[in-house]
Amino acid sequence: MAIPESQLETWAHQGAIKKSSDTYASIKRVLEANEASYYNKSFEVFLQGSYGNDTNIWADSDVDIVIRLDSIMRSDLSKLSPVEQIAYHAAYSNATYQFSEFKEGVLSQLQNKYDRSNVSLGNKTIKINGSSNRMNSDVLPCYQFRRYKRFRTIDDQQYISGIIFKAASGHEIINYPKHHSGECTKKHQETGDYFKPTIRILKNLRGWMVENNVIVENCAPSYFIEGLFYNVPDEKFGQSYEDTICNSVNWLTKVDWSKFICPNGQYLLFGNKQEHWQEESGREFLNALAKVWEEW
Q1: What is the pTM of this model?
Q2: CATH superfamily of 15-175
Q3: Domain segments of the chain as ranges
Q4: Residue 57, SS3 per DSSP
Q5: pLDDT digits (tens, 9 = 90+) for 77-103
Q6: Can you tell me the distance from the alpha carbon of 110 to that of 126, in angstroms, rounded to the nearest whole number?
């Protein structure tokens, strides 16, 4: 017996839209305020994660906010010719402003506004405790990363823009949140607006499975659920949520996952690096999903 369409429709709804929007607007104003020590630098504030991708559910608690410093950058020039690399180095000089100064400035700005007791430095982000009118938030200070495809002059260049930051362990992480969000929106449009509500259904179902001890909590992070179903062909979505999930799961059980990509298009979804999902965990999630679906 399948999960009823009425239950799937309930799980498809977004959660905490107004409060998350208000939280983001409040913190964005603080980060962009002219008293910030980094105010005269080039930077951008934007959402990432479930609230940035419109895949948030009621169980999602933290609003993920990026503040990306653009006054400095690191670049991957491996795809450029030797002549292009020379042109790149001639165009850009070494930065004098350090990312550590920027991160300290962001932390200080948030502590001054929200009180030190409510702001703490986590493994990757600055964590801000919520209040009656503001949700818990994670602010990620980072700087620009560029993966170059072409460089002739500053006015004639092509690159993939991402972010780079360090975890507390010292491990550097490169990600592409804007590309991830843009590709998820494109997938949503190309599936007749089924992709994002389907991800919300799957996230709610994942929560149900964790609560009922069907899977362990860290088996299927939201980012990887999005990635898994991003690789499902567009024609498997549509008609109803029941059809969408049945068709998608049936397709996923029959194909090779080794070439699946993340929505950002820069990494394989599965592998042995920190940015990858273990295929064993993905299979565990999918098998559990199919079993719960059949036994509901």
Answers
A1: 0.90
A2: Beta Polymerase, domain 2 (3.30.460.10)
A3: 15-175, 181-295
A4: coil
A5: 999 999 999 999 999 988 889 999 999
A6: 9
